[in-house]
Design a protein that fits this description.
By secondary structure, the protein is an alpha+beta fold. It has two domains: about 130 residues, no CATH class; about 55 residues, Dodecin subunit-like, CATH 3.30.1660. Helices cover about 40% and strands about 15% of the residues. The strands form two sheets. It has a three-stranded antiparallel β-sheet, with helices on one face. A two-stranded antiparallel ribbon has the order 1-2. A hairpin with a 6-residue loop joins strand 1 and strand 2. The longest helix is centred in the middle third of the chain and has 21 residues. The chain is rod-shaped.
Length: about 200
């Protein structure tokens, strides 16, 4: 049975209007064959078995509700599709626009998985979190123990009281993963500075 171009589909929260023609023309969805089949976007020569979309007693298509997709999840997906299709920007450029919260990015990714996967969404999700990881690493750079409010580092102090001994100690610390900070202080004639090492699961 031929489905109309505009579909009213219930989700776990409220119904959403789905425009099949918009989905069919989307460049973002060209490489999403499972989603295209779920919404009957493929042409008549499709290799998939032809079946009708499942409906409830009222005639409503139940796809999104069955996949536990909330209306907000669906709207996040549509938001990405429209931006990706119309902006002519790369995935990283879209990330730089800062139009999605972290929750939206995660929602977008898991909604995509439920619908069979969308390559551009996968790239967006991975690049977003990789960039976020780099930004957090750059912005969080404590120079002494009292600045380490996340308790991410093991700390030690070295000094230049005995230059030869200090060199040996510093070299050993560097060899096991410590790094020097830019903060130093002097007590009398002796110079001190902090070294830190990021904690691991077994540290």
């Amino acid at each position: 049975m031929e489905q109309p171009e505009l579909l009213l589909i219930p989700t776990t929260y409220k119904s959403v209007i789905v425009c099949k023609n918009m989905l069919r023309k989307s460049q973002t969805l060209k490489k999403a064959p499972i989603l295209r089949e779920l919404f009957k976007l493929n042409d008549k020569t499709t290799k998939w078995k032809v079946t009708d979309m499942m409906i409830d007693k009222k005639g409503n298509i139940t796809l999104l509700n069955e996949l536990n997709i909330h209306s907000n999840d669906w709207n996040s997906l549509l938001k990405f599709i429209k931006i990706n299709d119309e902006s002519k920007k790369s995935i990283n450029e879209i990330i730089e626009l800062d139009l999605f919260t972290e929750d939206e990015v995660d929602s977008l990714y898991y909604t995509s998985i439920k619908l069979g996967g969308i390559p551009d969404v996968d790239t967006f999700y991975l690049n977003y979190h990789e960039q976020e990881k780099k930004e957090n690493s750059i912005s969080y750079n404590p120079q002494e123990p009292k600045e380490d409010y996340k308790n991410m580092y093991t700390w030690t102090i070295v000094n230049d009281h005995n230059p030869m001994e200090s060199y040996s100690v510093v070299k050993e610390l560097l060899d096991i993963g410590y790094s020097s900070t830019s903060l130093s202080f002097r007590q009398g004639v002796t110079q001190y500075w902090y070294m830190k090492k990021e904690k691991t699961a077994i540290a």
